[in-house]
């Protein structure tokens, strides 16, 4: 079997571990050949690829980013790929394409699959918001990075008796904010799923100060926003899910809390540092398992599916299940978190 692999969309710690695993399983568990397309679907369309052998994936397990490069592709060019699905497979002689990516990439994978291309998807995102899988690799690394950052911010906040507002990634789902906030003992967590009232945050912080505590940390997802009429905030844009999107919530909220509390507040935007660097052992293991199962699924002819973690087992689920909606933070998870603010 000849396998094409690519990484598309935003990068994520663990991508290289999947590529390595695919190559190992294909070459040593089977007698396959593997080619890697550069810069995601762009390389597929433009004919930029290279043969992958065991040496080309040596030493990459712990390396962040992706050795293949990644890019986002406009919808029109994706259509072009779908319209030429058969020709693309014939051009490269591939029997299956394994795209590794997030919601956008899996939607593209589904489009290609519907157009007749044999596709096995592998989900990735630090946001952990892909439906159909309990976890995506990259999430554990992002939570670890964010937790360590908040741990560090607690000590400087205490020294200066400040309120720190830490903005983490998560445009549509607040999994990173929830788990990094819980793990680091943040005193407030704001997620996109549940509009927040700044008065509630002020209440928690004031109660802390009344108990003699001299600092507080609030962890806010980049996609979080205030409930209607609770604070002055510009007009957001409507995204493709029909959600209102605001920019710069960390900075705006820090300013608001400083004003309401009469205490110094500082915003800290973690940004892409959550996506870079070495994946955690958990993410390396999950990524390696996904790679193994993707190759096995290709041999079993489970096209139009993606690897998924259900409990502790890796299973295959239809791509259609993954892309219909995002997996968001349920209300009961927020209640658990709030009980320890
Ligand atoms: O989906 C992963 C993610 O890191 C989001 O959390 C974030 O909003 C987005 O990608 C950032 O994308 P870009 O790298 O294009 O700025």
What can you tell me about this protein's structure?
By secondary structure, the chain is an alpha/beta fold. It has two domains: 183 residues, Rossmann fold (3-Layer(aba) Sandwich); 135 residues, Rossmann fold (3-Layer(aba) Sandwich). Helix content is 41%, strand content 18%. The chain is built from twelve helices and 13 strands. The strands form three sheets. Strands 3-2-1-4-5-12-13 form a seven-stranded mixed sheet, sandwiched between helices. A four-stranded parallel sheet has the order 7-8-6-11, with helices on both faces. A hairpin with a 2-residue loop joins strand 12 and strand 13. Helix 1 crosses helix 10. The longest helix is centred in the middle third of the chain and has 22 residues. The N and C termini lie far apart (54 Å). The model has no long low-confidence stretch (mean pLDDT 95). Bound molecules: 6-O-phosphono-beta-D-fructofuranose. The site of 6-O-phosphono-beta-D-fructofuranose has 10 residues, from loops.
At the fold tier of CATH, the topology name of the largest domain is Rossmann fold
Report the radius of gyration as a whole number of Å: 22 Å
Proportion of strand residues = 15-25%
Overall, the morphology is: elongated
Please render the helix and strand layout as text.
Elements: E1 2-7, H1 15-29, E2 33-37, H2 41-46, E3 49-52, H3 75-83, H4 85-92, E4 96-101, H5 103-114, E5 120-123, H6 139-160, E6 163-168, H7 175-183, E7 188-190, H8 198-210, E8 216-221, E9 237-238, E10 244-245, H9 249-261, E11 265-269, H10 281-300, E12 305-310, E13 313-318, H11 319-323, H12 331-338
Parallel strand pairs: 1-2, 1-4, 4-5, 5-12, 6-8, 6-11, 7-8
Antiparallel strand pairs: 2-3, 9-10, 12-13
The chain binds 6-O-phosphono-beta-D-fructofuranose.
The site of 6-O-phosphono-beta-D-fructofuranose has 10 residues, from loops.
């Amino acid at each position: 079997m000849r396998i094409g692999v690519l990484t598309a969309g935003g990068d994520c710690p663990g991508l290289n571990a999947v590529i390595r695993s695919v190559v190992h399983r294909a070459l040593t568990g089977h007698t396959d050949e593997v080619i890697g397309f550069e810069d995601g679907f762009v390389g597929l369309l433009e004919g930029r690829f290279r043969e992958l052998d065991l040496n080309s994936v040596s030493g990459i397990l712990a390396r962040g980013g992706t050795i293949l490069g990644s890019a986002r592709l406009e919808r029109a060019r994706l259509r072009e790929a779908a319209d030429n699905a058969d020709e693309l497979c014939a051009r490269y002689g591939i029997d299956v394409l394994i795209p590794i990516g997030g919601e956008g990439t899996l939607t593209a994978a589904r489009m290609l699959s519907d157009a007749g291309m044999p596709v096995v998807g592998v989900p990735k995102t630090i946001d952990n918001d892909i439906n159909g899988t309990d976890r995506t690799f990259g999430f554990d690394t992002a939570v670890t990075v964010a937790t360590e950052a908040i741990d560090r911010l607690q000590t400087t906040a205490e020294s200066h008796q400040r309120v720190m507002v830490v903005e983490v990634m998560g445009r549509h789902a607040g999994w990173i904010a929830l788990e990094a906030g819980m793990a680091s003992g943040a005193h407030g967590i704001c997620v996109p799923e549940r509009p927040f009232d700044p008065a509630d945050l002020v209440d928690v912080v004031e109660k802390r100060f009344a108990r003699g505590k001299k600092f507080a940390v609030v962890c806010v997802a980049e996609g979080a926003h205030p409930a209607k009429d609770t604070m002055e905030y510009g007009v957001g844009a409507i995204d493709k899910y029909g959600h209102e999107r605001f920019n710069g919530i960390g900075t705006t909220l820090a300013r608001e809390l400083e004003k309401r509390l009469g205490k110094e507040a500082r915003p800290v935007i973690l940004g892409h540092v959550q996506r870079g660097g070495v994946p955690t052992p958990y993410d390396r293991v999950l990524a390696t398992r996904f790679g193994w199962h993707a190759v096995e699924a290709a041999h079993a002819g489970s096209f139009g599916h993606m690897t998924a973690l259900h409990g502790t087992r890796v299973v295959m689920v239809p791509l259609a299940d993954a892309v219909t909606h995002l997996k968001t933070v349920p209300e009961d998870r927020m209640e658990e978190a709030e009980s320890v603010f």
